[in-house]
Automatic annotation (TrEMBL):
Organism: Trifolium medium
Protein name as annotated: Copia protein
Protein origin, superkingdom: Eukaryota
Length: 134
């Protein structure tokens, strides 16, 4: 079973997020990361356009952080089709900036897997979340 997840931040706060079980089994982790990157890009662009319509801000380039270098490389491959063409077109049009991030700072991992307590607490703090005190 594979879980796809992404978080969209506005400023330093979570603005939108998604975590769901994948219906289609991907043949590699690269494909899974890439599929999730496509979903996140669509959501982020929709939210950016909504905010522009509401006069909350100008439409900005979406910065997408991936912890998979192979998924980033795949998005730049000219022979790629389908979802990969979508992301490549978004990058070529200046609408998307794919950047690599280390796995230990990938906030979406909170939504996809069981983490060690120290990793969980670290990512939780980066989201600005605090534990409720008794």
């Amino acid at each position: 079973m594979s879980i796809a997840a992404f978080e969209i931040m506005y400023g330093n706060a979570p603005f939108s997020w998604c975590s769901k079980k994948e219906v289609v089994v991907e043949l590699s982790s690269c494909e899974g990361e890439y599929t999730t990157a496509s979903m996140a890009t669509c959501e982020a662009q929709w939210l950016s356009m909504l905010m522009q319509e509401l006069s909350l801000r100008e439409y900005d380039k979406v910065r997408l952080l991936l912890d998979s270098k192979s998924a980033i490389d795949f998005s730049k491959h000219l022979a790629a089709r389908g979802r990969s063409k979508f992301l490549r077109d978004q990058m070529n049009n200046g609408m998307l900036d794919l950047q690599h991030c280390k796995t230990n700072v990938q906030l979406a991992d909170l939504l996809t897997k069981a983490l060690k307590t120290s990793s969980f607490e670290d990512l939780k703090m980066k989201l600005g979340m605090n534990s409720a005190s008794n």
